[in-house]
């Protein structure tokens, strides 16, 4: 997508053909910085500290982490150790395990001397396929937006609410929830996005707003608790969010606060869609509330916030009363009954097991 008019992916090989470049997402919206990854340890750090984040991008980064590990040691023990280290970085997003399983399945059976070249080839393929998948999600979701646009007065915008960042910064390119928005905007359909700030890390205010602005998409940042109010006053035409893990029955795990948006949408009769690649579906799980592990992150993310002061300096300050205990669950689960539809690369599905299995019989037959 575009950064100051120049096209970027979120992850790419350096000119030397082996190191990996990523965009440091902890620096947004105050700086655009590129980091060079040269080791497995640097890749583990980048995922854990959320220099890269978003389920599809985490998976792609992990694949390149295996590549970097293979530069040092191509033995079975090194391969398994690298996979284990990467898998421990983030527990909720299933794309991480999906990508690592693909790498292990391809690399373990072949001669160790062939592993590094094969690893890079497969990691490149994962990235290219992510872009193609997101483009398909965009086209399928754009049809939903176009249908809503036809019901509105000529020139009126389709108002879309989103939560967290499921944009191109969360994938290799295009995004999941944002792909239909970008394609609609580019095709001339007037759209406007309500961007939830998404506390505590402010991925909406920091990331989604930044990338929408770079692409010229009209948007308004709102506090997390404003969505229900806007829906009550008919200022939201549909909700589109992403997901870090979706069960085979259609339960959706996404950034904390998503469940509340789904409840408000249900009460107000607003369509609630989830955009996702099939790699985010965990076919081994059926009950999201009981089976999806919810990452508990540091309370410091809640206690502190970073921003630009009046003098222009970037400062981090504390905003919670001293001595107060802080909890920081990073995700929640939205039951399938609250989901209008799942926007996937193979069409818009009902959020139930039969619809998902019918669309992805190959994924059901294969290990996750």
Automatic annotation (TrEMBL):
<dbReference type="Pfam" id="PF01008">
    <property type="entry name" value="IF-2B"/>
</dbReference>
<dbReference type="GO" id="GO:0046523">
    <property type="term" value="F:S-methyl-5-thioribose-1-phosphate isomerase activity"/>
</dbReference>
<dbReference type="InterPro" id="IPR027363">
    <property type="entry name" value="M1Pi_N"/>
</dbReference>
<comment type="pathway">
    <text>Amino-acid biosynthesis; L-methionine biosynthesis via salvage pathway; L-methionine from S-methyl-5-thio-alpha-D-ribose 1-phosphate: step 1/6.</text>
</comment>
<feature type="binding site">
    <location>
        <begin position="53"/>
        <end position="55"/>
    </location>
    <ligand>
        <name>substrate</name>
    </ligand>
</feature>
<protein>
    <recommendedName>
        <fullName>Methylthioribose-1-phosphate isomerase</fullName>
        <ecNumber>5.3.1.23</ecNumber>
    </recommendedName>
</protein>
<feature type="binding site">
    <location>
        <position position="90"/>
    </location>
    <ligand>
        <name>substrate</name>
    </ligand>
</feature>
<dbReference type="InterPro" id="IPR005251">
    <property type="entry name" value="IF-M1Pi"/>
</dbReference>
<feature type="binding site">
    <location>
        <position position="203"/>
    </location>
    <ligand>
        <name>substrate</name>
    </ligand>
</feature>
<comment type="function">
    <text>Catalyzes the interconversion of methylthioribose-1-phosphate (MTR-1-P) into methylthioribulose-1-phosphate (MTRu-1-P).</text>
</comment>
<dbReference type="InterPro" id="IPR011559">
    <property type="entry name" value="Initiation_fac_2B_a/b/d"/>
</dbReference>
<dbReference type="InterPro" id="IPR042529">
    <property type="entry name" value="IF_2B-like_C"/>
</dbReference>
<feature type="site" description="Transition state stabilizer">
    <location>
        <position position="164"/>
    </location>
</feature>
<keyword id="KW-0486">Methionine biosynthesis</keyword>
<keyword id="KW-0028">Amino-acid biosynthesis</keyword>
<feature type="binding site">
    <location>
        <begin position="254"/>
        <end position="255"/>
    </location>
    <ligand>
        <name>substrate</name>
    </ligand>
</feature>
<dbReference type="InterPro" id="IPR000649">
    <property type="entry name" value="IF-2B-related"/>
</dbReference>
<feature type="active site" description="Proton donor">
    <location>
        <position position="244"/>
    </location>
</feature>
<keyword id="KW-0413">Isomerase</keyword>
<dbReference type="InterPro" id="IPR037171">
    <property type="entry name" value="NagB/RpiA_transferase-like"/>
</dbReference>
<comment type="similarity">
    <text>Belongs to the EIF-2B alpha/beta/delta subunits family. MtnA subfamily.</text>
</comment>
């Amino acid at each position: 997508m575009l950064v100051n008019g120049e096209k970027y992916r979120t992850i790419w090989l350096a000119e030397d053909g082996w190191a990996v470049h990523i965009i440091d997402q902890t620096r947004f919206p105050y700086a655009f910085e590129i980091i060079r990854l040269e080791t497995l340890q640097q890749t583990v750090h980048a995922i854990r500290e959320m220099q890269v984040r978003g389920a599809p991008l985490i998976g792609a980064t992990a694949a390149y982490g295996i590549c970097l590990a293979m530069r040092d040691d191509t033995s079975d023990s090194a391969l398994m150790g690298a996979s284990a280290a990467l898998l421990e970085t983030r527990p909720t997003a299933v794309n991480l395990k999906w990508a690592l399983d693909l790498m292990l399945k391809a690399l373990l059976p072949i001669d160790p001397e062939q592993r590094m070249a094969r690893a890079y080839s497969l990691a490149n393929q994962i990235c290219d396929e992510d872009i193609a998948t997101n483009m398909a999600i965009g086209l399928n979701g754009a049809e939903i937006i176009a249908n809503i646009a036809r019901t509105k007065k000529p020139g009126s915008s389709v108002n879309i609410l989103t939560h967290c960042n499921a944009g191109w910064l969360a994938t290799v390119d295009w995004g999941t929830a944002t792909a239909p928005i970008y394609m609609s905007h580019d095709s001339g359909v007037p759209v406007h996005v309500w961007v939830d700030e998404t506390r505590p890390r402010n991925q909406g205010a920091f990331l989604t707003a930044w990338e929408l602005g770079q692409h010229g998409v009209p948007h308004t940042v709102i506090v997390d608790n404003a969505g229900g109010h806007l829906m009550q006053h008919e200022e939201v035409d549909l909700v589109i969010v992403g997901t870090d893990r979706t069960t085979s029955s259609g339960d959706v795990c996404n950034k904390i606060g998503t469940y509340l948006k789904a409840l408000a949408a249900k009460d107000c009769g607003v369509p609630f869609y989830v955009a996702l690649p099939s790699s985010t579906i965990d076919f081994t799980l059926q009950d999201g509330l009981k089976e999806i592990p919810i990452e508990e992150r540091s309370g410091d993310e809640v206690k502190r916030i970073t921003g630009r002061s009046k003098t222009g300096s970037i400062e981090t300050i504390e905003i919670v009363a001293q001595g107060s205990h802080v909890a920081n669950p990073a995700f929640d689960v939205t039951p399938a009954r609250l989901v209008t539809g799942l926007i996937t690369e193979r069409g818009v599905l009902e959020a139930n097991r039969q619809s998902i299995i019918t669309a992805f019989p190959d994924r059901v037959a294969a290990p996750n």
